[in-house]
Structures are given as C-alpha cells and as structure tokens.
Amino acid sequence: QVKWKGKDLFDLVCRTLGLRETWFFGLQYTIKDTVAWLKMDKKVLDHDVPTEEPVTFHFLAKFYPENAEEELVQEITQHLFFLQVKKQILDEKIYCPPEASVLLASYAVQAKYGDYDPNVHKRGFLAQEELLPKRVINLYQMTPEMWEERITAWYAEHRGRARDEAEMEYLKIAQDLEMYGVNYFAIRNKKGTELLLGVDALGLHIYDPDNRLTPKISFPWNEIRNISYSDKEFTIKPLDKKIDVFKFNSSKLRVNKLILQLCIGNHDLFMRRRKADSLEVQQMKAQAREEKARKQMERQRLAREKQMREEAERTRDELERRLMQLKEEATMANEALMRSEETADLLAEKAQITEEEAKLLAQKAAEAEQEMQRIKATAIRTEEEKRLMEQKVLEAEMLALKMAEESERRAKEADQLKQDLQEARESERRAKQKLLEITSKSSYTQSMNSSTTALPTDLPSFNLISESLSFDFKDTDMKRLSMEIEKEKVEYMEKSKHLQEQLNELKTEIEALKLKERETTLDILHNENASRGNSKHNTIKKVS
User: Fold this and answer.
1) Which residue range or ranges hold the FERM domain (predicted)?
2) Cβ-contact 84, 174 below 8 angstroms
3) Distances (CA, A) of 454 to 319, 404, 446, 460
4) Reported CATH class of domain 6-175
5) Residue 39 in marked binding region
6) Are 354 and 448 in contact (CB under 8 A)?
7) How many whole angstroms from its chain centre is CA 504?
8) What is the rounded CA–CA span in Å between residue 308 and residue 195?
9) Residue 217, Cα to own-chain centre: how many angstroms?
10) How far apart are CA 535 and CA 529, in angstroms?
C-alpha cells in the first residue's frame, strides 16, 4: 500500500516465508549504481527508489552469522543463507579454491537429490547443473565428465544426510572462506591512497585493492570505541586511546550512510552473541531441538521399516531361489529314475537273450562233440578218406573248442549283466528315496515362502501403528540429545581432519591438469596464504 513503511513490507515478506530470524535480512534495491537497504521506519515510497514501475526489491541476508551452526535456528533461515552463499560462490563474489568448490558442489547435490543411488544417478545426471564457478572450470584441462566423476565420488559419501544437514555442512565450510560475509567499499586514506574497506560480522578490515583475501589491518568490534562520518570523511576511534584514530574518505555520501548502517547492525549482532539469548531465541532453539529430535526419530523409524522391507524381500528372494533349486533337483531326480528304470529293463532283456544264446551254444557244442565221436567211430578204409577224416576231425575239434570258449564268454557276460541289473535296481531304489525327501522339502519350503512373502504386505499396518504413537520429549530426551550433539562435535573435528586430507588429495590429483597461465590474482594470493599456513581467522588475529 502507498502508506506502508519499510517494516510493513518487510514483515509481509517474512510472514509469507514463515521466517522468524528476521534480524539477518533486509530488502535491497539499487539506486544510481549504488546498493541501498530499505529503512524500516521510513515509508517505502519516500526512499530514493527508482521511479519506474514495478519497483524491485531483493530479499537478501544483510548480516552474516559468525558460526552458522550455532546461530541459525530455523530451517528456512539456513536454506535462505545456503541459496545466497551458493549463488555468491558461483558468481565469484566469494573466492573459493577449486578443491573446496568440488566439496561444496557435492553437498549441494546431496541437498537437491538426496542419497546417491547408482541405478538412478547415472553418468551425465549433473550435465545441466551449475555447480562450479566458471573460473575453476577454465583453470583446468578437465571435461565436464571428469568434474562430475569427482563431485559424485564425494556425493556418494554423504549418504544419510537430510537436505537441511547437507545445507548446513555447506555453510560450515563456506563460512571459513576469506570473502564470506564481507561487504567491500572503495575508500582513500588521508594520503589519498586507494584502499578497500571490508565490513563483516567480526569487525572492520582494510585491504589493498588487489588483495581482497588478506587484510592489512583489522578493527574487531570489541576494540572500536566510536564510528562516525562527516560528509564524505569517515572516522574509526579505537578503544585504546594510544592507538591513532583511523580516517578515510568514501566516494559518495550515500556510501557512508550504508557503511554506518552495516557497522551498527553488525556491531549490535556481535554484542548480542556474547549475551544470554533472548526469550524468543530460547523458545526458537527449544522448538528447533524438539523438531530435530522428532525428525531424527522419524528418519530412524523410516530407516527401520526400509531395512525390514529389504530383509523381507531378500528372504523371499532366497526362498524362491531355493524353491526353484529344489524343483530343478526333483526334475533331475525324476529323469534319473526314469533312466534307471529303462536301463534296468534293457539289462534284464539283454541278460535273457545272452542266457538263451549261451544255452544254444552249449547245445551246439554238445552236438559237435557227438559228431566228433561219431566220426571217430566210423571206419574209413582208404588213406584219402582217412586223411580227409582226420582233417574233418581237426576242424570239428577246432569248432568245438571255439564254441566252448564262446559259451564260457557268454556265461560270464550273463553273470555281469545280472550284477549290473542288481546295481541298477539299487540306484532306482536310492533315486526313489531321494525324490521322496525332495518332495517333503518342497512342501515345507512352499509353506515357508507363503508366510514370508506375506510380510511386506503387513508392513503398512506397522506404519499406521507407528504414526499413531505420541512422543513426549522429557528432560531425559533433551539430555540425551545434548550428549549426542557433543559427540557429534568430536566426530566433526575428526571428520574435519579427514576432510582436509581429502581436499589436499584432490588438489594434488588435479594439479597436473592446471593451466598456470589462467590463474587469477586471487588464486595466486590464496596459494601463498595456504603455503604460509594462513587461514581467515588467524590472519585477522595477526593484523588486529
């Protein structure tokens, strides 16, 4: 409405978002290439807003927390900071080294896609995602597939993290970047030297224009006695009166107003952090802890149900596989039984034929013996007849000998066939017994299978029972939760060490693919700081 003040519009936006931690945020607009923030106690249209309609405001974080995990209570607050910081890193308003960019990208993927599933998240699923700063992509001779492979390798390690947990991990890493939460302004000192003034949650910092990572001098909020400006001249009075007053000039009066506005807001939050929480914040933190505990219990319940379903499915699959195996064994046993019966019949028939042949040969041998005796008994008078007779006798003896040998061989073969027949009948008996055992196992397995496969269909009723339970968060629950949080802190320190090792490993791995000629000034400065072991916080301590 035309009469609305800045607070009316701001409150409407916060109510729409369900946001209660409003002190971090503001409505930003641009006037004559300068950023400005809507004042709460001033009418919206009384600001120097652009005259053309519609008037555009950006709802953004104006002040940043020192420690995101401790200060950001609501999930919506965490999500809004995550979106803003992620955009600033991708737009290169916050410098992020390549190896940390890959790690942050993996948490962004976890927040968007949930747990990694190789059957769903196949090669190329990140092709359309903007996950890395263009500066990082151009710095290395690596294809999009190679970047995706490295992001996915870390993404797979984040299994089990919910969206809000992944976003918080992102912020915990990003808040240690040198340019995180810093507002930069071009200034000149009394000598006319061009400098940069940085305003953030920790204090005021003075930088060289070419080095936004490492401040030349810092003024922590607890060491500043007074900040003021007159026209374009800005004055910082340290708490220690022995230290000289620091004066500088900005380009525009509007910029001085913005600097003072940011200084007052950051200083107020700096002091608030060092006092006991207000009643509203205590209530919000208590509600957040209860909500976190409830979500944790819900996730554990869902995980248990999922595990039960998976176990039931595995058991069912195993029983089905076992049933199929038993069916195959039964089929093979039936076939073996049929073959044994056919073999036994054939052996019996062959044994009978061999026995008859042996009898026939024995009969022929007897006839040949009789013929030989008859020939011997017959008197042959002439020498020729005698010679012929001797030859016939010899042939008859040879034939009788052969028939006797054949008869003996046939008799042995008949005995062997009888023995084979006995073995075949024994095999038939064993096959019948095994088939009987398999049949009894199959009927038992089928009954087990029917009872086990019914398990997954019973699980929804378990869901309903679980959902009807009410949880009473007593003091013991809160104490247990506090102990878990302490434990998580210890684990986080250990993970941080492991994380740094992983970052160094990735940096070493891709170092060979770096194009040195494409390194920016910030890349070179960051590498120099890293080689000296300088970090954001210890650098500020040194120059304070």
Assistant:
1) 1-274
2) no
3) 13, 75, 12, 12
4) mainly alpha
5) yes
6) no
7) 21
8) 64
9) 43
10) 7
Contact call for residues 234 and 187 (beta carbons, < 8 A): yes
Contact residues for 510 (Cβ-Cβ < 8 A; gap 6+): 98, 99, 140, 142, 150
pLDDT at residue 481 tops 60: no
**CA atoms within 13 Å, Cβ hemisphere of 214:** 18
- Two tokens at 63? 């002040």
Which stretches of 115-177 are DSSP H helices? 134-139, 144-155, 163-174
Cα separations (Å) of 318 from 131, 192, 315, 452? 43, 81, 5, 11
* pLDDT tens-digit readout, 311-336: 999 999 999 999 999 999 999 999 98
Single-letter code of the amino acid located at 183? N
Burial of 178 (0-12, 13-18, 19+ CB in 10 A): buried
Within 13 A of 377's CA, how many CA atoms are on the CB side? 6
Q: Which residues contact 478 (CB under 8 A, 6 or more apart)?
A: 289
Q: State how far the Cα of 267 lies from the Cα of 287, in Å rounded to an integer.
A: 27
Q: Amino acid identity of 97?
A: P
Encoding tokens for residue 160? Answer: 């089990």
Q: How far apart are CA 460 and CA 283, in angstroms?
A: 36
CA max distance for the chain: 171
Compute φ and ψ for 212, nearest 5 degrees: -90, 0
CB contact at 8 A, 223 and 240: yes
Q: Show Cβ contacts of residue 300 under 8 Å, excluding neighbours closer than 6 positions.
A: none
7 is annotated as contributing to ligand binding: no
Token output for 66: 């020192």
The mean pLDDT of 370-395, rounded to a whole number, is 77
By three-state DSSP, how is residue 197 classified? strand
Residue keyed to tokens 């004066």: 247
Find out whether 91 is annotated in a ligand binding site: no
Is CATH 2.30.29.30 correct for 183-275? Answer: yes
Pick from 210-214, 298-302, 359-363: least confident: 298-302
41 is in an annotated binding site: yes
Structure tokens at 112: 């968007």
Separation of alpha carbons 94 and 183, rounded Å: 11
SS3 514: strand
Question: Could you tell me which of 354, 473, 335 has the C-alpha nearest to residue 412?
Answer: 354
Could you write out the DSSP letters of every residue in 408-452?
Answer: HHHHHHHHHHHHHHHHHHHHHHHHHHHHHHHHHHHHHHHHHHHHH
Peptide bond into 133 cis (omega under 30): no
Per the annotation, does 420 bind a ligand?
no
- Average pLDDT, stretch 385-390? 77
Alpha carbon of 212 to those of 176, 217, 519, 523, 537: distances in Å? 14, 12, 16, 11, 14
Cα angle: 487, vertex 490, 495; to 5 degrees? 120
Tell me: the pLDDT tens digits for 75-103?
999 999 999 999 999 999 999 999 899 99
